[in-house]
Structure formats: C-alpha cells, structure tokens
Amino acid sequence: MHRCATFVVFLVLGIAIQLSNGTEVNVKDKDNNVCLYAKLMVNFRVSYEVAINEILTAEFELPASVASDGSTCDNTSSTLKLNFGEGHSWSVNFTTEGKLYHIDTITFSYNLSDASIFPNSTLTETTTIYVKPQIKDVGVDTCYSCKSEDTYETDLVRQTLWNVLIQAFVINNSTSENITPSRPACWPTLACGFKIKDEEMNFEPNGTAVTGKCEVNSSELVLTSSTVTIKFTFTNDTKKFRLHALNVTGKTSSGVAFSVANTNLSLWEAAVGSSYMCNKEQNYTISADLSIYTFELRVQPLAVKKGIFSTAHECSLDDTSILIPIIVGAALAGLILIVVIAYMIGRRKTYVGYQTL
Fold first, then answer.
1. What does the pLDDT average to over 45-72?
2. What domain range is 119 assigned to?
3. What is the pLDDT of residues 25-54, one digit of tens each?
4. Residue 265 is assigned to a structural domain of this protein
5. Signal sequence span per UniProt (predicted)?
6. From CA 39, how far away is CA 312, in angstroms rounded?
7. CA–CA separation, 103 vs 94, rounded Å?
8. Do 329 and 296 lie in a common domain?
C-alpha cells in the first residue's frame, strides 16, 4: 500500500463517500490481549488460463468472515494474515522503527483449484504474489487510515484496497483514537462551472460523491453529481505537477448525453511540495464542445502535510483588481513627471530672461 490518495475536498460542495462494513479483525497475543486491529475492504481481479491461449478474469472480494490463523505480533514486528475460501490468504507485514512503523510486504496467495472462483482453470496450484507498498512513518500508538482506493497490480493480479483502518501495534489492549491519515494526494478547493456547446452549467455541490486514487506518478480526483461526472488526472515528473487530463460526462438540461475528454493538458502547474492557487476566474477550452471555468482555485496533488496547503504558486497577476492600482499608479507617476518637466522648462526660461536683462 503506497500511501493512498485521500481526496479531501473543500470545493463549495459537500463530501458524500459511501462506506461499508468490510472485514474487521482483532488479533490477540498469548495473553489474550488485542495486539493488532484491522478493518478494511479488498477487491481482487485475477486472470487465469482455462485453455491454450484463452484467459478468463475472476473478480472477488475479501469476505467479512475470515480466519486470522498465522497472524502474529510482538514489540518490533507483526503480521496480519487473513485466510478465506478454499485455500486463499492475504497478509501484511509490519516493522517498527523506533516510535514509527512501516509496511514491508503485502502477500496474496490464491488457490486455482477453487472452482467456485476459478471455474475450468487448467492449473490447480496455489500461486503467491508480493507487492511492496510505500506506507511508512506511521505512529506506533496511532491507527493508519485510508478511505480512498489504493490499487496494486502485477502481471495477472490487481488488488484494490479502500476504507482501511489498521493499528499494527495495539498498546494496553485498546485501540488508539489517534489517526495517522494516508498522505493526501490531492487537496483542492475551487468553484467551477462549464459550458457544453451552447449550454452553460454550474457544478452542483449538493449530493456530490467524491472519490479518487493515486499511482506512483499520477493521481485522480472524481466528482460525481446527479447530472455530471468530472475526473481530474494529475501527473508529476518528481519536480512539478500539473493537470494532465480532464474527463467530463453527463447530460444536458434537455437530456442529451455527452462525454468530452482531453488527455493532453498542462494546467495548474507548480513544484511538487507546493500548491497551485488562482483566485481569479479562469476559462479553459478543453475541446471544441467544452469549456470549463474556475475561480477561487487552490490544489495540491502531492505531499500534503498535516492536512494543510503548502506554500502557494500563484497564477499570473493579470486580475483587474491588481491591474487597476498599477494603471492608476503609472498614470500618477506620468502626471508627476510631466509636472516636473514643465516646472524645469519654466525655470529655464525664467533664468534666460534674467540673463537678457
């Protein structure tokens, strides 16, 4: 689990994320005290062979009812192992570093002989895959939380985690109320609207669902209302981030469906570790049919610390509220210069007159 994208949205709209129960486990030590707590949801997508050159895909989820046999915990390391179905297991290894801990490896084993999940599989062996996430610097006395989707892919397997709440080192038989959130990948505030062909539409905040995910070099923010879905895709090159793609789908007021995308944008660019801010209204032509406008925009797709924006990179200072004082100041300076020049010319003429006398 690299630190997943927790999309915290202030837009001028509300957050509506649907939560479900998922899988909840308490692991106990030899003294029957809780030493590891986990509540999470995991979906699996596995490709497997059913005949020569024929591949099927099985999709299934981590069930609510699992066995935690094989889970262990002590002062320096712990393992959460969840066994389910006919020979399947999913496990996570944790290691401490002083007062912090990190996740070493996620291990997923699946039994291809389980016909209920892998019907007609030509193989009957148990296959194991490993992924190394980038979750670190989690306080030992806190719960790690990540509500957004976090996806890990290998050649044949895709694992998607969300609604994760884990305390790998429980102290005094009681889970902590303190939370170490996942590193937010995108923290935006904005108000926006758009024009599809000849119809202008404002993004309606009420009832908006907010989702997102992040990969190593990109992150996504998806806003879904009753009439439109907007997906922002940000990319970074280790030094700068930018809005790279925008997808808008929905229906006009007359019920006509539309879908517009541009995957070659370079907007809202700023250095990684800073935020991009622009309070003035900005208009962007996304395609021949779609224009989008924003105002009071501030966004930070990466390296959000303590839930607040980093130093802002502001858009160009071409707002009329700034230009007007500049123009007035320049006009006054010009007027003063004219008065000074006229005064000097007048004095010179007076001096020449005195010399003639």
1. 94
2. 23-181
3. 999 988 899 999 999 999 999 999 998 889
4. yes
5. 1-22
6. 36
7. 5
8. no
